[in-house]
Design goal:
Layout: E1 5-12, E2 17-19, H1 29-40, E3 48-54, H2 55-60, E4 71-76, E5 88-90, H3 93-102, E6 106-113, H4 115-121, E7 127-133, E8 141-142, E9 151-161, E10 164-172, H5 173-179
Parallel strand pairs: 1-6, 1-7, 3-4, 3-6, 4-5
Antiparallel strand pairs: 2-8, 7-10, 9-10
Length: about 180
């Protein structure tokens, strides 16, 4: 396990859907602000967080927003020749985590998608920042089930936008583990 905190950050519809055809099926500016603020916020002013994503997620980010500013970007790909301008190209989640561990300027690691990367990280993350949207969307990609490994620790607030309600929640793994004893 990493000596840096690892978090998953995701927005899901009421069925745990996260995407359709490689894109978000919704756009809520308040959720985008929450994502940006959460992944950029550090306890120490001279540190940055790392955001880790799969190649498809990287490529789904519009060029003008790549790399995600004020964060170290890591892209996981099986292609050993892949170039991600402004980001670290890694061939595994383990490689991305090792690079974060070796970089003293990185405070925390945020896994930002997609589904395959979330699946790899669900068993090692310390917590999940999850925007839960109270609406069903047409999705073909889903966030892995986490209810048996994580406990809802904190409701960080609810918002309404475009007639849709959503909540920002934090799920903690250590609380789930402590309940086993």
């Amino acid at each position: 396990m990493s000596n840096k905190k690892i978090y998953l950050i995701v927005a899901t519809d009421k069925n745990n859907g996260i995407g359709k055809d490689g894109k978000l099926p919704w756009h809520f500016s308040k959720d985008m602000d929450f994502f940006m603020n959460t992944t950029m916020e550090t306890m120490e002013f001279d540190k940055k967080n790392m955001v880790v994503m799969g190649r498809k997620t990287w490529e789904s980010i519009p060029d003008k927003f790549r790399p995600l500013q004020n964060r170290v970007n890591a892209v996981i790909t099986r292609n050993t020749d892949y170039q991600a301008e402004g980001a670290l190209a890694c061939n595994s989640l383990g490689e991305a985590i090792r690079k974060a561990e070796l970089n003293e300027e990185i405070e925390s690691i945020f896994i930002i998608g997609g589904a395959e990367i979330y699946e790899m990280a669900i068993d090692i993350a310390h917590g999940i920042y999850k925007t839960e949207i109270a609406k069903e969307y047409d999705c073909d990609t889903y966030f892995p089930d986490h209810k048996d490994q994580y406990v809802l620790q904190d409701k960080l607030g609810g918002e309404d936008e475009k007639g849709v309600h959503f909540e920002f929640n934090f799920y903690d793994r250590s609380l789930a583990l402590s309940e086993d004893y």
